[in-house]
Amino acid sequence: MRDYAECKSRIEARIAELTARAQGIEDDLDHQKPRDLSDQAIDLEDDEMLESLGHAAQNEIEHLHFALSLMDIDEYGLCQKCGGDSSKARLDAVLYAVLCKECATAAQSQRS
């Protein structure tokens, strides 16, 4: 089994950061709405943006938990498509990357 200690620590720290951010967003969304209609409109727009940020944080948390589960079965850092190793630079940039750079680039090209 490979040594994932550094990556695991970084992933767990990122999960904690995102969880705190999501909680802060939830707290902001729970605030009392102003009575003034124009202020309410601005607040609703702000709430939509906060909800979007909250969903993005939750999505990333799910990806990070999946990365931790890959560590448990010694498949973290392996491309889910070609089976090759993802580079350390790629995993440093995207902690939950499941595709190597080549496969990710090919997948992006197919979507375009």
Class inferred from helices and paired strands:
mainly alpha
CATH fold-level name of the largest domain = Helix Hairpins
**Overall morphology:** elongated
Whole-number tally of structural domains: 2
The low-confidence runs, each spanning 5 or more residues with pLDDT under 50, are none
The helix content, as a percent range, equals 55-70%
Could you give the order of the helices and strands? HHHH
User: Whole-Å distance between the termini?
Assistant: 37 Å
Oligomer: single chain
Instruction: Describe the main β-sheet briefly.
Output: none
CATH uppermost class of the largest domain: Mainly Alpha
Average pLDDT for all residues? 90
Annotated CATH architecture of the largest domain: Orthogonal Bundle
Using only C-alpha atoms, the radius of gyration works out to 19 Å
Strand content: under 5%
Helices, by number, come to 4
Description:
With 112 residues, this protein is mainly alpha-helical. The chain folds into two domains: 1-74, Helix Hairpins, CATH 1.10.287; 77-112, no CATH class. The chain is built from four helices and no strands. Helix 1 (5-29) runs antiparallel to helix 2. It is elongated, with a radius of gyration of 19 Å. It starts with a helix and ends with a helix.
